[in-house]
Write a structure and sequence with these properties.
With 312 residues, the chain is of the alpha/beta class. The chain has 13 helices and 10 strands. The longest helix has 18 residues. The model has no long low-confidence stretch (mean pLDDT 90). It holds the Pfam family AAA.
Amino acid sequence: MIEIIEGKPHIRPCRSIPADGNELNDWVASISTLYEPLTTMMPLAGAPMLLPDRPGGEPRIAARLRAEAPWMGAAIDLVADQAAMSLWAGRPWLSLRPMLLVGPPGAGKTHFARRLGELSACGNAVLSLAGVSSNAELAGNPRGFRHQQPCFPACVIQATGKANPVVVIDEVEKACAGLAGDPVATLLGMLERSTASRFFDGCLAAEVDIGHVNWILTANSIARLPAPLLSRLQVVEVPGPAPEHAEIVLATLWRDVARDLGLAPAALPRLEAAAEAQLLRLFRNTRSVRRLRRAIETVVAVSARHAPRAVN
């Protein structure tokens, strides 16, 4: 049930967590203590970024994403439409239908999904299913297992402190069923809001509401994906950035590298004109966001060796 607290919508993901017998144990933390935040009221975030960027304009989050990744136009259009619908329906928080971004490696699919979580202030987390043949990473481990842990969406909700984080499932087409379960089959129930809102978690031994999670899946191809999964997703073809987007991609990745280092972009070593031209040439030749990111990190590392940064 949604409650308004200080003018903002909140939900309680889990009503209560039954005792597991470790409540008085000084050496082993109880599950109810470890995951107690899930039983508190958590905000549904994203309202400010759903508002128009100007009178009659599109939602702020769509405008920001379009400025940073214009080649993602089809996905951004869906985000804009659903943001406007949420406001119209009186649901002022980020609430997207599950989306599958399909495109070549290095097209910026995962980066785009993470930016959705960052710009909306909902938070995000990425789980790669490449080579995964167990559903433990996604469904968690129930009580009685040595490494008991709630399902991945519940862990992300607790880590971000938001009831509607962006959960990114990377390379979903590379998962496969094994003796320990089928991660894709587990996804089916999580993507349906009617079942996800009352998802039974074996570790918590209780129902947890993951129905407000914003799911973004990525894949290089849909050929191996089952029809039941595709029927639950908005499939968006991602062509990747074109050569004319080189300057935008470089500026965005330069900012991201700085952020990951805990610095402002201006604090990075100065990018010489020759190095910038080489980076732009690399991207125009390869059209790979991933390769450009690695090249930027190399340039920064080499520059830092010759121009050490003073640390107070």
